Every structure is written in structure tokens, then in C-alpha cells.
Amino acid sequence: MWKRKSLRINSILTVCLITYNQNAFVSDALDSIATQKTTFDFDILIADDCSTDGTKQKVLEFSKKSSNTSLILQKKNIGAAKNHIDLISTPKTKYIAYLEGDDFWSDPYKLQKQVNYLEANPSVSCCATRFSNFTGNVERPSGFPSHNQIVKHDLVSVLNSNWSPIQSLTMVFRSELLKPKLHLLANNRIYAGDYAMTVLLAMKGQIHVLPDITGMKRMDSGGVWGSLHD
Q: What is the pTM assigned to this prediction?
């Protein structure tokens, strides 16, 4: 079932939130989106993969109170990969910001900072940031190298990484660059969705990582994206 609202004509970014059975955490994700402070309009699109634990009800309540929120409510569980493709292929805006329902943003100016950077650097395909891990109620360093300057990745450095050099909760990217390749993410041999997205975006331009910590990756929830295919 699709529940679509009219997208605002001035929106330049869509926040894409993917959810599945994250009732204990999704309110934090929704609140972190709602508290973003921007000088531009943005839309919110949530794709729920037929949650059975109350997540869908929280998403519906949020949508009722938010005029810029549209929903993709799957009638049956279709799996993370297909739900992701439905989600990312829908927006018509210039930029997409991605978030999973168990993670959340900690910087209310996250979207503004990243859109400003992408507007000033048209050859950059994706702007990411640093992040922290979050277990229980405790914030911990992510384990990724810390830095106080912008780190620039090209396709070679991404492919030479032991793991994805960025995490999906920090990504803001140019939607036109990823959409033509989305079908590749449905391949059942892909097990790390964030790394696959990073590779596809690196094929179209550099990925720059800002030194700001803007989000929290929850480490004790199971996650939707840890594997594209259950």
C-alpha cells in the first residue's frame, strides 16, 4: 500500500527512512528527522516492510502530524533489498539523505551542512560525515579513523577499503547518480548494502567525508542493512 502526499515544489531533498520491526528505536529516528533545521524545504519518505511490532503504527502517527511525509507500506514482507529499491527510486528531488529506523541523527544541522557542501562542490557525488556507535544509552567511538579535516574518497580508495569507508546513516547524495544502478542492489550475492551504495556512488564522483559527527549508529538492534538479503 502506498500512501503518497503531494511533494512540495520547492523541496530539494528527500529524507529516505527504511524501517522493519524497529518499534523500540524508530521514534528516535523520526524525532531526529523532525528536528533538522534547514533553509530549504525537504520531504520525508518512509518505506516500512510490513512491520508486525508496532513500528508501522508509529510511522503512521508521525505521517499524520507531518505534512511533508509520504509512506510506502508494503502489503507483505518483501525483504530489505526490494524495500530499499522502492524507497530510493521514488523521490524526484535533487538530493537524498538515507537513514535506517534504528539509527538516528545527533546534529540538527546535518542536512544543511551537507547540502551546502554538495551545492558548492558539484563534482562530489556523495557527502558523508563521521558518526558514533550507540549501545544502550552509551555513545562510543565508531572505530573508523578520526579526522579533523575533509577526507576524500575515489573509486580506488573505496575498493581498497577493508569495509565501507562511510556509513549509510551519514549519506547525502545526488539522486540522479544512484537511481540508474539501483537494480544492481537486488543481486542476492550482495550482503553489505552500505558498501554497495558507496561503490556505485564512487563510480560517479568523489565521496567526501566531513569531520563533523552527525549521527549515531545503533549497535544492539540487528539493523535492516547489515545484510541486504535475509
A: 0.88
